[in-house]
Every structure is written in structure tokens, then in C-alpha cells.
Design brief:
The structure holds two protein chains of two kinds. Chain A has six helices and no strands. Chain A is elongated and about 65 Å long. Chain B is an alpha+beta fold. Chain B has three domains: about 80 residues, no CATH class; about 60 residues, 2-Layer Sandwich (CRO Repressor); about 55 residues, 2-Layer Sandwich (CRO Repressor). In chain B, strands 2-1-3-4 form a four-stranded antiparallel β-sheet. The two termini of chain B are about 40 Å apart. Chains A and B meet through helix 1 and helix 3 of A and helix 3 of B.
Chain lengths: ~130, ~230
């Protein structure tokens, strides 16, 4: 029965890990998106110090997860989000309202796409 | 470059373990499912080996999943004849009493050229000498000629012969003593030293090959002098 249990257990472990990964990425990106939304709202109220603080928090949390994210996701998708983060922080320094909103929107969209790549859906499977 | 090195090492060992689990069959003898598995696995391994933008687990997980599925398929094939027949197919008779069964050939998309190629490979040129030819699931043909066309054996001649087939056991392999084989054959190192001495050899390192069979016959091939 070892010939049955070992491969079946391995398959179960891989499936469980994949499901957990999908959920973990969804939660993480959701948290960062919330911070980015708060940063966006603060910028709309011309509270740039608060906007920068929220953005920094989001970036630090993002940066801390990069090792694990690089082991499970396409690196080019992560690099794109990293570039958007850097761009948003630079624009935040300049306090350019219009560009900041645009970059945050792009960044949130990219984070949503990252979560989507790991989720189990008909769209992804087929 | 370091990434490429480590990824290659990891994938190589995973593939070696996987292929070892698949068994010892050669490519030409693989069942259809095993051939598909081998082709997909080699492709899956190559992608993360070359493209560093793709995580290693994107290659590893599908490989491990495929190997697990293959092992499960083998398990269920062993347990169920119907399942085995579904996965591996079943042998088909394509020549019976010297007559080609064209429907069976068409059903297996087996051409006349392929049939004659395999018959020639096995030394059969005359269809009328073949009682049965069976297309095996591996794609090979097993040919059973009529008794009158089969090779002559002592049994068909009603001759009694002494059975002198013995299994030689390797005692020295390219200078290295196979201690387990030596003990299993009922000999020890002093016996081995005596054998070497009688052949004017002083050390096992001078021996390329030494075997002993069940009857106690020793074959010893000394190493050639390196030029």
C-alpha cells in the first residue's frame, strides 16, 4: 500500500500548499492594497505626510515578503510591481497629485493581478 | 550563473530519482503513458533551468505531480486488469496461421511496412512460416513460428542433455573486490588471495574482472598494462 499512500500523500501536500499559497497571496496583497487606498485617500486630502507613511508601510511589508514571493511567482510580474512602488514613492516625494493617483491605481491593479495568478479559477485553469 | 548551476543540480537529481522510480525500461520499450511522461518531464525541467524569471517550484511541482500520478497509475494498473488495459492497451494478434489480420492492423494504425520491418528484424521473411504474430503494447511484435519452422532444440529431438548453465558472480570489478558477492558465494579473502597467487597476481587492483560460478569455475581477466 506504500505505492498508493506515498504518491497520494505527496499530491495532497502539493495541492494543500498550492491552495494555501493562493490564500496567503490574496491576504497579503489585500493588506497592501488597503494601505495603498489609505495613502491615496490621504493624498486626495493633501495630507502628504500621511500618504507617504502609508505607502512606506505598504512597501516595507511588500519588501519583507519578496523572498517567498520570488519562489512562487513569475519574477517579471514582481519586478513590475516593484517598479511601480518605487515610482509611487518618488512621485509622493514630489507631491504630484495626478501622477500619484495614476501610479497607485496601476500598482493596486498589479497587486490584484499577482493574487489572481495564484488563485484557483476557471479563468486560470483554462 | 550560480542560479543556473544550482537549479540544474536540483532538477538533475529530481529527474534521476523520478526516472529511477519509473523503472529500468528503455525509451523504445516505454508504454504510451510512460513515453508521454518522459517527454513532458524533460520539457518541464528545461524551462526553469534556462529561464531564471520562472520560479524553480513552477518546474518542480508539475514534475513531482506527474511522477506521483504515474506511480498511482502503475498502482491501479497492478490492481485492476481493466484499468491496465485502458491505460496501456492490450496485445493484438495481427498474423494468425500465416494470414494477416488487416482489421486488427488498421485498428492499431500499424502499416504493412512496419510489420515487415519488424518481421525482418526478427529473421522472418516468409509469412507462411508464422503461426502467430502479436503486436505488444510496447509496439514490438512477438513472432511465434510453426513448430516445423522453429529452431531445433534438444527437447524437440527428444535428447537428454546435462544442464550446465551456471550464474557467474562478480568478485572483482575493475580492481575493486565485491565483498558482498564474495561472502554470498561462500568464499573469503584468503581464498581470493590464493586465486590471485595462482595467476601470478599480487593485488586485486591488477584484476579487471574476476567471476566465479556455482560450479566453482573462476574466470580472471588481468588489467592491461597502461601505455
Amino acid at each position: 500500500m506504500k505505492a498508493l499512500y506515498i504518491p497520494a500523500s505527496l499530491l495532497a501536500i502539493i495541492l494543500a500548499f498550492s491552495l494555501w499559497t493562493g490564500r496567503y497571496v490574496e491576504l497579503q496583497t489585500g493588506g497592501w492594497t488597503d494601505l495603498l487606498k489609505q495613502s491615496d485617500a490621504a493624498a486626495r486630502q493633501e495630507n502628504w505626510a500621511e500618504a507617504e507613511s502609508q505607502l512606506q508601510q505598504a512597501y516595507q511589508a511588500w519588501d519583507a515578503s519578496q523572498t517567498f514571493f520570488h519562489t512562487i511567482m513569475d519574477h517579471s510580474d514582481l519586478d513590475e510591481a516593484e517598479t511601480l512602488f518605487q515610482g509611487a514613492m518618488a512621485i509622493c516625494d514630489e507631491q504630484d497629485d495626478a501622477d500619484f493617483h495614476l501610479l497607485l491605481a496601476q500598482l493596486m491593479s498589479q497587486l490584484r493581478l499577482l493574487a489572481e495568478t495564484q488563485s484557483i479559477s476557471i479563468k486560470n485553469i483554462f | 550563473m550560480t542560479t543556473a548551476f544550482f537549479r540544474t543540480v536540483i532538477l538533475y537529481f529530481i529527474l534521476m530519482i523520478g526516472l529511477r522510480l519509473m523503472g529500468k525500461r528503455q525509451i523504445g520499450e516505454l508504454e504510451p503513458s510512460e513515453l508521454v511522461l518522459t517527454l513532458i518531464i524533460s520539457d518541464l525541467a528545461a524551462v526553469p533551468m534556462q529561464d531564471f524569471g520562472i520560479p524553480l517550484v513552477n518546474g518542480l511541482f508539475p514534475i513531482i505531480t506527474l511522477l506521483c500520478l504515474s506511480m498511482l497509475l502503475s498502482f491501479f494498473s497492478l490492481k485492476s486488469i481493466r484499468f491496465r488495459s485502458l491505460v496501456c492497451g492490450h496485445p493484438t494478434v495481427i498474423i494468425r496461421d500465416g494470414k494477416i489480420l488487416q482489421q486488427n492492423m488498421a485498428r492499431n494504425r500499424f502499416t504493412v511496412d512496419e510489420l515487415f520491418e519488424q518481421l525482418r528484424t526478427q529473421g522472418h521473411s516468409d509469412l507462411s512460416s508464422i503461426k502467430y504474430a502479436i503486436l505488444e503494447t510496447s509496439g514490438q511484435i512477438s513472432v511465434l513460428p510453426y513448430t516445423k519452422d522453429s529452431p531445433l532444440t534438444p527437447q524437440t529431438m527428444n535428447q537428454q542433455v546435462q544442464d550446465n548453465v551456471t550464474l557467474p558472480v562478480l568478485l572483482i570489478n575493475d580492481g575493486h573486490i565485491m565483498s558482498h558477492n564474495l561472502t554470498a558465494s561462500g568464499y573469503d579473502h584468503s581464498w581470493l588471495q590464493n586465486q590471485l597467487k595462482t595467476r601470478r597476481l599480487t593485488s586485486p587492483r591488477q584484476v579487471f574482472l574476476m567471476t566465479v560460478d556455482e560450479a566453482g569455475s573462476v574466470v580472471c581477466v588481468a588489467k592491461e598494462e597502461s601505455t
